[in-house]
Fold each of these.
Amino acid sequence: MVALVTGGAGGIGGAIATALAGRGHRVAVADVDPVGLARKADEFGALPVEMDVRDEAAVREGVAKTVAELGPIDVLVHAAGVVGGVGPLLALPVAALDAAYAVNVRGTFLLTRVVGEAMITARRGGAMVHISSAGSFQPTVGLGHYEATKAAMNALVRSAALELAPHGIRVNAVAPGPVETPLTAAALADPAARAPWVERIPLGRLATTDDLVPAVLLLTSLEARHVTGTVLPIDGGQLLRSV
């Protein structure tokens, strides 16, 4: 089995890539960070693929490289994503919206299209899992632009699930709440900044990458062969709270 993981140099993508390799997948790790990419690839012998998910040519080149060196892609996990900035809608720079849209929406569209084409050509079926956000269902002041892009991702997941089902390709997403990663560590180290996030979660703690990995592995496996078009919250009950 061959898996392509975008955002593979990051905390979430890296943890998923490592877990897929542990299950015997031949893994291609894609990222825009060449240093982090090389480090992650060296950990378990993954194929490093420099890829800017905003760029159609880069996506096509990365997918072609993966197929040429590892074989047909069976699994896509699209974990690349950005917030772009933080601020109320009336003050947020438009550039922050553009940055989030380019990666989270355009990137999802391009990865789904190009990997979908490759899976159809291979005639082996496949599974795609996109990393969405609980914020796509529940608004947070200052993150409306980011949450809008994740809601758009959810819509793309559902449409792609319908269109690709005749080819045996399943498309799902997971929607975590805040996750402890190296990227979020500095911001969450401040107790005053951390407390409001924890207070929203009935289970009383932030997620770790270990909380996400099992659900992603399930959705990529044949154990979930009758699951498609689902956006699965992994949020410690956050969505049970009123806004």
Amino acid sequence: MAQSNHLIELVHSRIDEFLETRQPIVTSVSPDLTPLLEFSRQFLSGGKRFRALFCYWGWQSVGTGGPVGSGPDSARSGAASAPVISAAAALEIFHAAALVHDDIIDNSDTRRGAASAHKLFEGMHVRSGWAGNQVEFGRAAGILLGDLLLGWSDELLDEGLAAAPDAAAAARARIEFNRMRTEVTVGQYLDILEERAWLTQPETELFDRALRVIVFKSAKYSVQAPLVIGAALAGADAEHLDALRAFGLPLGIAFQLRDDLLGVFGDASVTGKPSGDDLREGKRTVLVALARENLTDTARTNLDGLLGDPLLTETQIGMLQRTILDSGAVERIEALILANVAEALAALEGSPISGAVTTRLTELAETVTRRAF
């Protein structure tokens, strides 16, 4: 735990250091651009840093480096770990970019208990008394902020890869990062597609299509890709990377299934988003697909009619929550989470990953899938 906390501190510091180097570039263009830096810092200051942790433990799993910046050889170990710290920080910036864009796509007003990026820009527009529509300005500015963060994540990764002692390993890490970026983007498209195309798809395919969204939009980039990027950077061979992939994918699926439950039943004080937010956004999740399977025609029609209405009242949210609970879908999701975690942990047995790292990965598996409502 102490080592993970120390890593998070180093990632925070690396992000802050990187933003400091970008500030003069941005402000030299115009002081009007200062909000881009301020909002970037705001969105990069919080979060649980799961992706950074998985990247680091993927790197550690290869056994080529000691604990980051600690012990009698802290200077040497710190220098050796610099590339993975940059890679972990780059993943966090990439995640922030994805969240900014995701909130725009979902018309979500909040993130981590505060205003989402496009809402911050909307507020700035209103306070400043500018011309035009504040919503249009907020959306356009938010898209650009997400683009800026996306580019910065690439720049920070390149800085880390340039410092890596093994050029071939750095190249493999870059390939994995590029694959992750493509898969997240197409996964996001599949997400918005399912919200609209479900009506024309065979009922028997809705579960598999919802699961496909989970795999490519979230599971791979939340767990599997960070693990593999870190391990590739450390010089892992194909067998080692395959073991991490076999662990990371089912755990990533379990992680997102838990997130889907939180999106419907989560306490706003815990999740940082209004309870039932996914219902207002019309998310066609695995939870919804499973609920529809066990509903009467009338209940299914009511669910479909209300899902995706941004003006749902608290009463209607409560009714939908009860409908989903009564369908048995929550119990089935919990069973799927347990099954996927078990599959992930089984993949570590007999793998080339050391016992010490296996212990850390097991602890992380518990942390990311047992989040409370």
Amino acid sequence: MVPVPRLVDLVHDRLEEFLDDRASILRSISPDLDPLAAFSKRFLSGGKRFRALFCYWGWEAVGGRGADALTGRDTGDRFAVVSAASALEIFHAAALVHDDIIDNSDTRRGAPAAHRLFESLHGESGWAGAGDDFGRASAILLGDLLLGWSDELLDEGLATLRDPRAVRAARTEFNRMRTEVTAGQYLDILEERAWLTQPEEQQRTRAERVVIFKSAKYSIEAPLAIGAAIAGGSVAQLDGLRSFGLPLGIAFQLRDDLLGVYGDPEVTGKPAGDDLREGKRTLLVAIARERLAPGQRRLLDELLGDPSLDGAQVRMLQQTIRECGAVDEVERMIATNMDRAMAALEDAPISREARAELGSMARAVTRRAS
């Protein structure tokens, strides 16, 4: 198999090269823009590179290039997939910057969120006005800048492909992903506010819709499809990868929902029970509400979304959700979706090497602790 560190190194180098080039453009405008370049690098320096890896293995699944895929002579295809994988990382960084503003999160991966970094810059510099206003406005612009850069980086890669059909297909997949995740993000914030006016029997379905469009498609299905499109994949091959990617993406997000309530802050880089303070109307919460007695449900509704929840209140909500059986049900849903994904992977018309690696990655993303 192609060594994973090799791909991660190539993505890292491509991002460094691209960001250095864009930093020079910013610098030519004004040295005052240096924080935009510095914070961009900061938010792209870490992470698990899941989306980049799924993009690569979507490409490998269709092309079947084997062990020489990243070192062979077809430099155009290699440059295209590494650029696309890197573009996905920039897109993800942009989404996180905006997500932290929407959720009013103070941290990301154990470090200050972008708007808090800009707020600190304001305070350290002694500028006029409110630091938090400056922080939010600047982070919005940073996220917008990263979104634009993700498009530029993707286009640089696609320009090296010889097959115009592959270029159109990959661009179409990327555009669809961008629309879907933005729609999913809106549905997420809508549910935090509109749940009270929605019929009780619809809340699980509405939460499932958020899971699919905010995360499942964008995290796994879309990167696989983008990589496969670059390789000129057939309809059957892309359908097979989608049939694997969507249920795996659902399992991935359900694990994330559990970590948002029960994750170890030392591992996740987020405060314990952060989703409870943010009022996330996740599938875990929807299932808990179905199972709780009316009095417990009212208490959950009253406390969920209170940013001032203390440790004791968080622990009480964690225990309430667990004891009603909601956690066990979500774990069963993760297992069921994992089974569906693995069955689809077995049937997909893709390379044997990619099938083995994607199976290994599926286990990694659904069993993770952060």
Amino acid sequence: MYRSLVRPALFRFDPEKVHYFTFLWIKKLSNIPGFLSLVGKRYVIHDKRLERNVFGLTFPNPVGLAAGFDKDAKLYKELSDFGFGFIEIGTITPKAQEGNPKKRLFRLKRDQAIINRMGFNNEGMEAAVARLKKNKGKVLIGGNIGKNKTTPNSEATQDYLLCFEALFDHVDYFVVNVSSPNTPGLRELQDKEPLTKLLKTLMKENSTKSTPKPILLKIAPDLSNEQLLDIIDIVNDAEIHGVIATNTTISRENLTDKHKTETGGLSGKPLTNRATEVIKFLAEKSNHAFPIIGVGGIMSAQDALDKLDAGASLVQLYTGFIYEGPKLVRDINKAILANY
């Protein structure tokens, strides 16, 4: 139904407007008694064999929603009822910011992809916290944090610390995002020295808490093997809890859609193989020393299985969810059980 009726209708309109339209209608429909129950019966699979214990947390199933979809923690409860085992909000910055000028989101239908140059548009950490207070532990939530566009890299650590402190009591794990291509200069923070310093600072603050939270690093798919080896060293040196591989890519190889020259981060099917390669490289070269959340181009259940086989402990969807709908979440969990 989603692919035959809903998607063709939604894909006729501007993707960013459709995103907010969809949020609005999911909210409205969720207020109808029994709606979420029906959704849950269709898409949620309850099976103890799907549970995963990763970095000290118990995930009801290994399929999560990647950051960028529910940027402001507005729909995490409703989205969890579509079968996701966890929801990652953000990227959250200390201050609200509008992001980059529109138009900034493009569907590449011929390539089953999306290009975005959103630029960390969000309502700021205080607005997110106000919504997260309503969760009360019901949905397992990751907090993806970043710096404001106007904050120079020399002061970026303070932005990450502000978000860490504000969100600490309201998320289950943190993701340090230094890999988005849409904030000028942000990827420079992936260099070994500044990244190690940033992560060690966050881990030091984390150690002061009575119950520290897992801290993960989200990396770009465009890193060389030498840079990926540096990431392994950084993870071990800073003693963070894991890696999310990968963010969107700046590569435009083999694209055919009319929007292929748009600037921004590319996600979807063109990223499938590269993201899996990065996961496999990190897992093998580190001797599986830390958990990896696999994300990037998961457009089918097999794509998810490939990432798990490559060394990922969990997976996340974004573009695949937009193209395939919630059925993809159910299909992945069914495939995992079939291969149990």
